[in-house]
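Box 3.1. Reading complex inputs
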Amino acid sequence: MEKVEKVKKDLLKKLETLEDKRQILRAPELRSLYAEIPKLPPEQRAAVGKAINDLKEQLEDHLSKSEDTATAKPPIDISAPFGINSQFPEMLPTENGSIHPITREMQIISDIFYRMGFEVSGSREIDDEYHMFTSLNFPEGHPARDDYDTFITTEGFIAPAHTSTMQNRVLRSRKEQLVQGRPIAVLAMDRVFRNEDLDARHEHTFTQHEGIYVGRDITVGNLVATLKLFLTTYYEKDIQVKITPFYFPFTEPSFEFSLSCPFCTDGRNCKVCSSERWIELLGCGMIHPNVLEMSGIDPKKYSGFAWGGGVERLVMMKFDIEDVRHFNSGKLEFLRQFK
Amino acid sequence: MKVSLHLAQEYSNIDLIKTPTDELVKLATERLGGVEGYNDFTNRYDKIVIVKIISCVQHPNADKLTVCLVDDASITPEVKRDKNGYVQVVCGAPNVRVGMLAVWIPPGASVPATFEDDEPFVLGSKELRGTVSNGMLASAKELDLSEDVSGLLEINPNQDNVKPGMLLNKLPGVHDVVIDIENKMFTHRPDCFGQLGVARELAGIQGLPFESPKWYFKPENLPGATGKLSVKVKNEIQDLVPRYTAIVLENVMVRPSPLWMQIALRRLGIRSINNVVDTTNFMMALTAQPLHAFDYDKIAKGDEATIIVRKPKEGEKLHLLDGKTIEPHQDAALICNEDGPIALGGIMGGGNSEVDENTTRIVLECATFDMYNIRRTSMHHGLFTDAVTRFNKGQPAAQLLPVLHKTVKDFVALNGASVASEIADSHPKISKPKTVTIGVDFINKRLGSDLTFDEIATILSNVELGVKVTSDTLEVSPPFWRTDIEIPEDIVEEVGRLHGFNNLPITLPTRDITPVYPDHLLKLEQQIREVLSRAGANEVLTYSFVHGNLLQKVGQDPNDAYQLRNALSPDLQYYRMSLVPSLLERIHPNTKVGYNQFALFEMGKIHRKSAGLTDEKVPQEADVLALVHADTAKTTNMAYYMAKRTLDFLAESLQLHLEYEPVTGAELKGHPYFDANRTAWVKFRGADLTLGLIGEYQPQVTKALKLPEKCAGFEVSLNRLLEGTLFHSSAAYKPISKYPSSSQDITLKIASSVSYGQLFRELINVLESSDYIWQLSPLGIYQKEDDTHKNVSFHLTLASYDHTLKTSEVSEVISSLSDQARKILKAEKV
């Protein structure tokens, strides 16, 4: 025990002279102390072992304190425009700046719908089962819930797998508008999440634009015409569109919406449409009467349509981006290409 | 869901496939939906022919090879023949023998199993150990007809028309087109998980009237029971198992299924096991109703089998067919005999009651299970079988007897079995589909169409929906398999779909000219994006979830973060509580590849448990803007001032004025990555409203994330910033004076403990109370080492609206500034 005390004194002294202070933890004195434990009478071993460990901890404590003070920066006058004896800082060159291609595309999309008379809003990133499923006519335990690989928190909150989580909120808060004779037209655009493994074509995090339109005598033809108008405006050229039947619990009927490839004329060697000429773009349909009813809207009086589509897809097609993972990579090499 | 056009046609009353395949697939895509693609087997078997083995001789140079002469009735051109017209083929299969009918792939034809490869294997005439083999004799696997590789596929000669020289694709089912439709598409259509259901749709989309086989409507007559056995069913959970039927068959001989059935199952992606299992699976593939066969002798006591349908008992275990032993979910529908469980109902049979090669008597089960309970149990055990895929869509109880009777007849006809018991039918109560009353007007209004009564009635009755026309409405009564039709909208879908949605006229909705208003927050975000990119910063997006390691590196408490419990990726553990760590994490990967000076910013949502819940009882979300500035150069200003310069520039662009106030370490509890010595609260000037924090980072954080020395940034609340732009912004414009302005510099010496901000505020107060047009900008802050005082210099520009200022007037203002500074802050003019 006395030996431990002695080593402690020696090492603390040595610590002050050392250049690389971390070396103290590998000091031969410490090692020889440990080596002596087996030679001690068994009843003493535990106590001595503990004393040596304590010593080591104390040394580490000293180390981290001295490191902190060594690297801790002195206070500055945070109200000043620049430091003492320095210049007014230069801003970064404007030509280095960039806007993310996804947010830029979101702006382009929302501008078009805004001009068409749609309000634009965001959506939530953490939500509950009611908004993710129940309010969208997915009964408890319904197999359609399996098609959405949702992230769930320990409390049971859900990371929305679609922006349709906003449907109930959007409709409920605007139902008075209908009574006044004005339709509800809203575009909700934000991040959504699917519990998937990442690869060049699959992301667990992506962006959706969700359109909701409710009024009197709204038809399937209205849905198709609205989306077609959006696409011809977006691509600034004539676009052919078609719908094919699909199934979603929250729309009836439900469709998959395709457009004629805007990037080729004959499909020859087209990477975007794989020479198919048609591109499946989004899911849509006539809002299910149960969804309207759960939002306090009378489905006998009003009908409407909704759609949900990905923004990444549009951007990737536009710029021929090969890997969806670039978007969230934070790589300047990628970002600075989008001035 | 795979659909065989051959089978669909086989069970149809009309010609479904006279339409060319391409067109039919296109029509299915447009009117049925979810078609992922199709597999055309039409050309796969070209030239492949059934032959008779005429002779077999041991290969002179190889023990395991046989040299055969085969007879193809001389139909194959351009192949070398002997004087009798037979062809020599070398074969390695153990079962080759004289007289058998086998399948020969002649030279020039390709091996069907390699048909989809990049380079299909095309046969020729080649020497095998010195003896020429013309083409090959094939196994079922090589022909892509079953999994069997044990020997040559032997063709049963006792079938219609089978003889040497017949092309293989004349056998039923060889020649086929298989369409693959997404399962998701049929989540609400239990009937479409059977070939019969899809056949009906294929008729409907072509405008053809479909009639289901009679046996599907009305149970066929069964031969009377010849045996003296019986089966009893005690159903204790009728809410979870609405109906359970069973029958005993005897004289069953377990053996491989006939070739046509093996082919059919293979085309549909179902593994062939033996004739008993295959017969039940084939019926499932046809009608979507799963069946199960138990070995009677493994579950019965003497002349009677008792089946008890119940929930599991405490601690009860079940050994399944796939070899696993499970402790069934507490609500599972367990199929048992008196001794214990024999199957996990609707999901998988038990190993203890499995049909094997010695089985001669079986209990055939045909039952209905509650779809939600099936889904719950299958998810709980991770068991996803073909039966689950069908039961969890909700199969109707009404189809049990038709399907059971048909299956029994198949057993009798195909497998020589005989009926040994009466049918046990527990709880034969069947809910009838609802009749839906709908106006033609309603349909046309929703579709925007102009269809007549008659057109609609034909469309619906083509797929066997009952239609009764009254004065101005249709009464639609769905058949028992259409459990999806409940409300008028379902009829709208049906009419639109079968008519062709793309045939509907398209028109834009009309609305009045009431303007819509922009979302203020989104507008602000867009402004910020433009300003910051102008300031040379780069907008990034980073994930909303972070790894626990990152929280640890920046010192954040994971207990305040919402944790994901099921993420596949280990990187996604927590909802982030701040955007800063995500941005800091992106710095090193960029400096590493040579970017020396940059700023990253992001706008996004953050979540903390301590922020509580909203009125909707979901977590509070906050929208924030974060920016980090990184600089690997040694010469420039301190990082903090770089970040501040950017934030002030942003504020000015939004016509806001900010102030910076010191923080204490304790105040940084939620933002432990900031260094209190170099961090400030950001506030609006003149309003007690905190926006956020700006500062440099803790040395440990700098080290852990390999940040450059010069690194600083800010995180501010977007909602507060919005509040600022709405209520605290000041119009920037001041009228321009006709008279020239004058400038003068002023340097004040103050104690180093007095902040620049304090001094600046005092000077501004003086200027604001004057009538001049003024501008005060900092020039420099000088301090000698170890000095207790510093010199702060400003550049003052003054002008008046009504006259040209004299030098004395400017000097007067300068001295009033220094007077004020002296009075309040003990400053001296230098």
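In summary: Chain B touches chain A through 130 residues (CB under 8 Å).
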